[in-house]
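Good morning N.,

You mentioned wanting to compare the apo and holo forms, so I went ahead and generated the holo version with 5-O-phosphono-beta-D-ribofuranosylamine. This is what I fed in:
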Amino acid sequence: MSGKRRTAILISGRGSNMAALLDAAAGQPAYPADIALVLSNRPGAAGLARAEAAGIPTQVIDHKAHAGRAEFDAALDAALEAAGIELVVLAGFMRLLTPGFTEKWLGRMVNIHPSLLPSFKGVHVHEQALAAGVRFSGCTVHFVTADMDAGPIIGQAVVPVHPGDTPDDLAARTLAAEHRLYPAAVALVATGGARLEAGRTVYDGDGWDTVTLT
Ligand code: GRF
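and this is what came out, ligand included:
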């Protein structure tokens, strides 16, 4: 691959991972993802203001204005196509996507989840981890498939669990790791140095090491 991948970041809320990606793209001239669009399904998402302040085009597609998931995903797909998007980055995007949409963007859409998948999918992730009594947790970047939080893993970062941690403590420690992992993983996918082949992630060179953070 050559040139920068035109990339959309999809958010629903505060957008701290989005901000980490914008900072990486702005701070590294050779960063291989060109953040061309930030799109939210919630009109009031705090991340929108942060993106606007950075001069990134933003768009809202309110899921409440659509009859169902298929209609919403069709509008999303149309917006991504209209913007010439090549890579879709989910960053706290709180919508389940239809199989038709995930199939179309397979290998070109990634997500970050605040656990070491396949443990602790879904919501209340840090509560799940603390209830299980694990000593280490972390975060995972993966290709998006139709099954929630189950696509092929691209990268992971590990964080310790401390005695007496609250879910908020673990969330904050994990989030700091997310902000290191996601820009590295998106860069690797944008260059093609990590890609989906026959349902597995394959890497060029030392790519695996750059997204395996302990
Ligand atoms: C992150 O913990 C991410 O892993 C999860 O949702 C949260 C989004 O946070 N998918 P932010 O909006 O990026 O701050």
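The pocket of 5-O-phosphono-beta-D-ribofuranosylamine is lined by residues 11, 13-18, 91-92, 112-114, 139, 175, 178 (CB under 6 Å).

Happy to go through it together on a call whenever suits you.

Best,
F.
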